Amino acid sequence: MIATIIENGHARMVANFAQLIAILSDFGPQYNPSSEEMQLPYLNDLLLRSHNAVQDVLEKNIVYNQKVKERRLAFSQLRPLSSRLIWSLEIVTGAKGMVKSAKFYHRKIHGRRANNKVKVKVNTELTAVKPNRISVSQQSYTQLVQHFAGLISVLKVVKDYQPNEVELQVATLEAMREDLDQKSTAVIISEVALSNARIKRNNALYLHTDSIYNLAKRIKLYIIGIFGKQSQIYMDIKGIKFTKYRKP
Asked: For residue 5, what are the CA distances in angstroms to 1, 9, 247?
């Protein structure tokens, strides 16, 4: 909900800038600043770039959320599958060393320590994070894939591990590991793309010297300096709000 409000705030910023440009355009040739950045052609170009930047963030956020959802669904099968693999291994082999090695990776997948079985929190939940860098949760998923690969490597060297159940066979497990790895990587890629899109949007709307926020402030000062605070054009534009960027 908070994320939606923030994204709507960016769109409102662009809409307010469009309103400002419309008023300046209606004022005609009397609005004639010497700075190219404050002239109407530049303002209209900035408006288009800002609109596209806001839209790009929205689109990349949809992709990111979808990739996170797909990853969560795929990884939700890992822990129960790990338990089934341990049970299947114990049935076919008496090699305690192999079982011990398999259980080591099994505990890692479940986030437990060997000594006291206390769970270690591993973030595998779908979160409404606004990424600006690769988050800790992505690293946790990468580690889960590595632990799963370790478990598979143990099963591969146990000759008697030949289950009839297709979902427990090594070839199926290898395919699943690859799929998990791909889904985890897809989230990271989409997260980076979303972060870069947000940087581009923030620069256009708030941070650059020629951003919407800074140019709107300069335009209002220009109008005051040329036409005065009591002028009709200043009365028309003074209530148009442009909010300063605040880090989330």
From this structure: 6, 6, 14
